[in-house]
Amino acid sequence: MPSAAAATTISFRKYKLDGAFRSEGVAVADFNGDGQLDIAAGNVYYAGPDWRMHPILGEPKEFNRNGYSDAFLCFAEDVNRDGAMDLIVVGSPGQGTHWLENPGKVGGAWKKHLAVASTGNESPAYVDLDADGRRELVFMNGGHCALARPGKDPYQPWTICVIADDGDPGAGHGLGVGDINGDARSDVLIPSGWWEGPVDKDRLPWTFHPAKLYGGAQLCVWDFDGDGDNDVVGSSPHDYGVSWCEQTPEGWRTHEVDKSISQTHALHLADINGDGLMDFVTGKRFWAHNGHDPGSYEPAALCWFEQKRKGGRPEWVKHLIDADSGIGLHLEVVDLDSDGLLDLVISNKKGVYYFRQVRKLD
C-alpha cells in the first residue's frame, strides 16, 4: 500500500448493509468462527465478507426512527471464555447492559444474560482500565462513576466497583479514559473533571480533580500539540461543534476545531492516513432527539478530521466522507478487509454501513 510519505488521495467506498434502524452502536469480531470479521448491530450480525444478516435473538428486531433502540453501544467479548465471541449490548441510559451468549457450533438463538441492571450514561467505555489484561465497563451507576466486570461466574450479574466519592459529580453526557497526568496509569474523565487512577488498584475512592472540558460523548485523550502532556477532544451531541482542550500549567484552554456539524456524537481517535498524528472520526447522530436538536434536518454527515502540525500547534482539515449516513453513539475504526488501511463501521437510525478506505496515488 502507499506509504504515509507518498502523495495519496484518501476516500471511502460506502457499503449499505441494512437500511433498518437496528442499533446506535456496533461491534466487529469473528462471531461465526470462520476466520472472517463480522459486524454486529444490536440483535443481528452481518457475516463477512458478503454481509448476509443473521439474527441473534430470534427474529431480527427493527426500531422506529422516531424513538430509540435498546442497543446504544455494542462491544465484542468472549465473556464466558468458551472460544466463541459474545456480544455486550448497553441499553439506553437507565436501562440494563446485557451480554448475548454465542451458541457457537451448536447454533440457534443466543442467550441473553444481565450484566449491569442500570447503566446511567450515554457513552460508557469498555477498556482495560487497570492494565490487568481484562476490560471493564466504565459507566455511571446511580450518579456515581463506576466500573464493572464479570466475576468468577460470568452468568451472574457483574461485580460493580464505584470509584467516585459521594461528593463527586456525575455525568449524563461525556466520558473518556486516558492518562491525564502522565503517570502511565489510565484516568477517567467527564466534562467537569477527572478521576486519577491510583497506584494501588484496590484503593477507593479515586481522587477527583475538577476541570472544565469540552464535550458530551466520547472524550478522547492524546497529546495533540506535542508538548509532552495529554489533551482532550470532544463533540457536541445536541448542538454544533467539535473542540479540543489544551492542557497547560495554568489550566485547560478550549480551542474550536469545527462548528459546521450538529449532533456530533460518537467520536473515535485513529491515525487514518498513517502519518503518525492522531486524527479523529465523527459526524451527525441523525435525529438524536427525534428532530428536536439544532440542525436536526441537515444532512447526516460523516467526517474524518486530519491532524496537521504548524509551528508546533495542531491544525485540522475536515474531510467529508458521506452526507447520508452520519454517526451513532459508538463506531468501529478497524481494518475490516485486511488491506492495511483503516475502515469505518457504523450503525444508527439511517441503517448499518461499512466504509472501506481506498487510496489513490496522486
Structure in words:
With 362 residues, the chain is mostly beta strands. Helix content is 0%, strand content 43%. It has a four-stranded antiparallel sheet, with no helix packed on it. It has a four-stranded antiparallel sheet with strand order 2-3-4-5, with no helix packed on it. Strands 6-7-8-9 form a four-stranded antiparallel sheet, with no helix packed on it. β19 and β20 form a beta hairpin.
Biggest sheet, open or closed, and with what strands and sense? 4 strands, antiparallel
Q: Structural class of the secondary structure composition?
A: mainly beta
- Give the helix level as a range of percent: under 10%
- Looking across the biggest beta sheet, what order are the strands in? 1-28-27-26
Low-confidence stretches: none
Tell me the Rg in angstroms.
20 Å
Spatial separation of the terminal alpha carbons:
13 Å
Order of helices and strands: EEEEEEEEEEEEEEEEEEEEEEEEEEEE
Our estimate of the beta-strand percent is: 35-45%
How would you classify the quaternary structure?
A: single chain
Tally of helical segments: 0
Q: Averaged pLDDT, please?
A: 94
Please state the overall shape, judged from the principal axes of the Cα atoms: globular
- Using DSSP, what is the number of strands? 28
Question: Briefly, what is this?
Answer:
Helices cover 0% and strands 43% of the residues.
Task: Please tag this protein with its features.
4-stranded antiparallel sheet; mainly beta; 362 residues; 43% strand; single chain
